[in-house]
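Dear all,

This email documents one entry for the complex benchmark we are building for the journal club exercise. For each entry we list the sequence lines for every component of the assembly. Then comes the predicted three-dimensional structure of the complex as a token string, followed by one or two observations. Please use this as the template for your own entries, and keep the labels exactly as they appear.
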Amino acid sequence: MSTPLNAEDIAQAIESLAASIRERHPDEALTIIGIRSRGDEVAERLCTLLATDDRELNFGTLDISLYRDDFEHLRENPKLQGSDIDCPIDGALVILVDDVLFTGRTIRAALDALSDYGRPSKVELAVLIDRGHREMPIQADFVGISLATERLDHVVVSLEGTDGEDKVLVTPRA
Amino acid sequence: MLRKDLLDIHSLTTEDIHALLDQATPFKEIFTRSVKKVPALKGKSVLMLFYEPSTRTHSSFEVAAKRLSADVTNFDVPSSSITKGESVRETIETLQAMRTDYIIVRHGRSGLPAAIAKMTNACVINAGDGAHAHPTQALLDAFTLREIHPDLTGKKILIIGDILHSRVARSTTEIFLRLGAEVAWLAPGSLLPGYPPAGVTCFTDYETAMRWNPCALYLLRVQMERQDVQYFPSLREYHRVYGVTEERLKRIADAGIHIMHPGPVNRGVELCDAVMDYPLSLINQQVENGIAVRMSVLYSLKPES
């Protein structure tokens, strides 16, 4: 087991995400939607960094459990946490945020879930970590850290607000 | 929670009950979106097998299943071969061959949903069997009162009406007790069971029952179809003695007591017309929450593969 990323790396990654988003969208209104769980915390920290800008900034969270494509293979259905999107999605420029981009299936589900709230003018994807091994034609617009991993490695992200500590562990397959 | 069927409240662990109720909240949130539907049960089939008439429970389950993207088929009793003498077993074998994933059953005989559950790989949900159980009604009742009182511990609920024949009274009493609430029954002596569950106080007099200080009154529907046997002298008399009359409603309002009813209401029998506009009536919330709770149940059960 290795700890490739510590709290400082994570803070830097989120700052670089915020900087890239700011560069591409200097003053446009943004709707930041974090995918539960942990994507919501990354999104919240991004919002804090972007809050100093002179722009309209909305925040929401998305639970994609009901949009998964693997119900057939699960012994028990995932526990729902619920989505919380109070801002209008119709016509919004949405930045979808997740902690780890892996197969792309979560993002596929998130795009379906988001479209049930309305029709955004544009959706872009920001991820803290891109670990590769896509199973769908999905790429991120903003990447905090690119991590080289094996397909079967476990990448475990802990975040302060959710888990009490910022760190990323990579566990190889036993 | 991991189970195939929902047959009664008794067989659920308290943890299961909390999980089903907690999970109904995110489902309720879906009703406020522009698309009131999620793909969780896409491609699954839900069969409504109602041997007894029901408008509310039937349509509530149907809406719940459709909001989860399941396909719903109605096996209507009068129009199907059940009236031609087909046995329940033959019907279930037919449904099994149709590869139904969920069967929602209502039947006048207690225990029939449990018997069906043993015959099939499909999930079976009891939508009311005889005087035995009506678990989804109990779940929606608990969910509705929990929205007012998030912790039901020590809360007092007075259930009024035909306790003896009521599966609603049985299941709803059990769930409230399991969630730590106190339950009392108020009914004419002829409509009270001889052996109430432990912890349930029985009253036959309205004023005495109200001095017990309930936070909610739960009125059961007087079943008009049972009026051939005289359990009480007349509907007018029932209203005067056990109903929420206009005069009583004023005192109920002053005490801040909520009113619940499983529907459909017999106006002028259990409740006077004014209750329909009573601000602390939870009857409409019960209907809306019924859909969310039934979505939570459908989502949580897993058919055997």
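Observations: The helical segments of chain A are 7-24, 39-50, 105-115, 160-163. Chain A is about 25% helix and 30% strand.
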